[in-house]
Amino acid sequence: MLPTGVHFESYGGEARLLKTMRSRVWLGGLLIALFCVPLVAGPYFLGVMTYMYISLMAVYGLYVTVGMAGQINIAQSAFVGVGALMTAKLSEFGVPFWAAIPLAALATGMVSIVFALPAARVKGFYLALTTLAAQIMFPTIIFALPSDWLGGLVGMSVTGATIGSFSLSSPVDFYLLTLVIVLGLSVVAFNLRRTRFGRALIAVRDNDVVAEVMGMNVLKIKALAFFTGSLFAGVAGGCTAYFFQFVTVESFTLFASVWYLGMLIVGGTHSALGAILGVVFITFIQEGLHEVATIAMQSGSSSSGGAIFALTSIVLGGLILLALIFEPRGLAHRWSVLQTTFQLWPFPRN
Amino acid sequence: MINFLQILLEGTLVGLVYGLIAISFVVIYRASRIVNLAQGEVVVFGAFFLWSCTFGLQSIGIEVPLFVSVMMTLVACVLFGLLLERLVFRPLIGQPAFAIFMASVALLILLRGVAQLVWTAETRAFPVILPDGAFTIGPFLISTRLLIGGIFTIVLSFALHYFFTRTRQGLRLAAVAEDHNTALSLGVSVRAATAIAWILGTIVATLGAVVLLSGRVVSLEVAQIGFKALPVALLGGLESIRGAPLAGIIIGVSEALAMAYLDPLTNGAASGVLPYAMMIGVILLQPQGLFGWKKIERL
User: Fold this and answer.
1) Are residues A223 and A278 in the same domain?
2) Radius of gyration (C-alpha) of chain B in whole angstroms
3) Are A153 and A299 contained in the same domain?
4) Chain A within 8 Å of B276 (Cβ-Cβ)?
5) Is A318 exposed, middle or buried (0-12, 13-18, 19+ CB in 10 A)?
6) Statement to judge: residues A217 and A301 lie in one domain
7) Same structural domain for residues A205 and A277?
8) Is B72 within a domain?
9) CB of A145 within 8 Å of any CB in chain B?
10) Pairwise CB contact (< 8 Å): B101 & A313
11) Residue-wise DSSP of B131-143
12) Is B1 among the domain residues?
């Protein structure tokens, strides 16, 4: 809700994302802070942040497919993988990174449409199962292809990104690059629900029969939902490829897909803010566990790498279950409750 | 020709194992309308329960006869089912299908984490419960373990089919599978159905683990079988218990044929991709599978 005294003289004003001066100032401050992080942070922290931005790109994609259009997609990591492999292949042909990433994203979108086509016949979890099939088939197919096509078992190395003669190589460069890309995608993700296409997605999610009766081509919208979601995944894949400068199929597992979905669910499926909150929250929990494990290992206890992995799985699985059971609207809803309480203080909310 | 028939035979027997795991998947769906993606992890839990009750106890110096260990495993399966029902699925009754589906996805990683923490990732020997070895009929070589497992799968599917279609309790479960709200308004306990579903599902999954692993090794990788069973369950029809063994045979045979004749041409991908390609085909052509309930949707 809005603070007292804010009023609008046009519909355009009411539809704005940032309605008050205060929210604009806060956002500006946040942006400046994000761009200043490299001044104070070490390379490890920058790496964590960069990876977090890449995850956020993929989760934005899920927000479009799962959150807005209501089509479950448990193959996001495979789509990220397709994007990464395409980028690697394109960079092998000497395509510069600013062209390779969009092209790879388009290719990823095309691939995803194949798995969205069963939407013509089925919906709900049957559709989810086709994406699951995509995720399971992905490594098998890549392994079987000749290894000079897409790397196969060995993987592909990626030549570093360059702008003109300037080569992006240090963690700071990559941090800034992914930050710029993720900000661009954020603008898209936050504004999507205000567009005609976004409203169509939400209509299909809420009731696809009614959407069809109102004259929407539901199949086309579902396919486009997968396509758009995979564009985000493709960009994430492209960034992954340049970030690690090496791509193997093995890093794009079903587990990663579940992680992405888990981030979205914990954050809240129905808003782009949820995607951000979920990614930040889960990343920090993951890093926290990592930190605890490192300390435990230094102090000589017997915990091994396997136990850390097990613990992160348990924590994430538990968090998804807790979110589903106790707060299906996710952290985003908690955040808005907090905001309202703050604005109404000292009066009670509701 | 003999070679071809041998491939068919082996495909059939392996397919029946898939069928058995698919039955454990179908049982949960048929009794509670939960699509459980974590079925592979349930198989792993069943296998580790049995391992703990035999070799696990032995390694800490307690010798128990096999019969007692099997009983202990059954008790563990029942407790596991009750725990999942109470902690995970009871709070989700009445929630949209999306939430329940996502809960099973969350269980997938939660259970894997727990299994890795409790039993660690190392591989262990699995107790010999079914006789090992093979015998020959004419020119064909048949694995005793798989044959017993196959016969058992078929018998079990008929028994469970009888339970679900002819007994009062089974019909209640079928009502829950059709619609939670209708079942609740008719006085059928969805909680009880979910608990029974998970107990039955875990027990059948454990039986599947016995057939699959008897005398071999068990590790976390066994969970892969859960994704093998998914195309089988879908092809047979998610509500059809008798469809699962038949679909298992179809998938098993086509996988074996692909392995023998297509894999050399495709660098080993055909047999891995085929079941899932078939799954997508089934979803496209006949979503209810061979014997599933056809749901008619209209305005």
Assistant:
1) no
2) 19
3) no
4) yes
5) middle
6) no
7) no
8) yes
9) yes
10) no
11) --SEEEETTEEEE
12) no
CB-based contact, A122 to chain B, within 8 Å = yes
Cβ-Cβ contacts under 8 Å, A255 against chain B: 109
Distance from CA of A64 to the nearest CA of B (A): 16
User: Can you tell me the distance from the alpha carbon of A179 to that of A31, in angstroms, rounded to the nearest whole number?
Assistant: 10
Q: Which of residues 183-222 of A touch B (CB under 8 A)?
A: 209, 213
Q: Do A121 and B283 touch (CB under 8 A)?
A: yes
- Are the CB atoms for B109 and A317 separated by under 8 Å? yes
Q: What is the pTM of this model?
A: 0.91
Choose the final residue of a domain: A222, A252, A282. A252
Residue A247, SS3?
strand
Q: List CB contacts (< 8 A) between A261 and chain B.
A: 102, 105
Q: Which of A126, A306, A311 has the CB atom closest to B283's CB atom?
A: A126
Q: Do residues A85 and A141 share a domain?
A: yes
The Cα B274–Cα B290 span in angstroms is: 18
Same domain, A265 and A121: no
> What are the CA-CA distances from residue B223 to residues A73, A139, B25, B250, B256 (Å)?
21, 17, 13, 22, 20
Q: What is the residue-level pLDDT of chain A in tens, covering all 350 positions? A: 777 788 888 888 888 888 888 889 999 999 999 999 999 988 899 999 999 999 999 999 999 999 999 898 999 999 999 999 999 999 888 888 889 999 999 999 999 998 888 877 777 778 888 888 989 999 888 888 887 777 777 788 887 777 767 777 788 988 999 999 999 999 999 999 999 999 999 999 999 889 999 999 999 999 999 999 999 999 999 999 999 888 888 889 888 999 999 999 999 999 999 999 999 999 999 898 888 877 877 776 555 666 777 888 899 999 999 999 999 999 999 999 998 888 888 888 76
Q: Give me the domain span that covers residue B78.
A: 25-127+142-219
Choose one of A252, A272, A289: the last residue of a domain.
Answer: A252
Establish how many alpha carbons lie within 13 A of residue A176's alpha carbon, considering only the half-sphere containing its beta carbon.
11
Side chain identity at A267, as an amino acid letter?
G
Q: Same domain, yes or no, for A230 and A283?
A: no
Q: Which of B97, B108, B266 sits opposite A124 (nearest CB)?
A: B97
Q: Which of B202, B238, B190, B21 is nearest to A124 (CA)?
A: B238
**Distance between alpha carbon A137 and the CA centroid of its chain, in Å?**
22
Whether omega before A38 lies within 30 degrees of 0, making that bond cis, reads: no
Q: Are A35 and A176 in contact (CB under 8 A)?
A: yes
Structural domain includes residue A124: yes
Residues of A in contact with B117 (CB under 8 A): 307, 310-311, 314
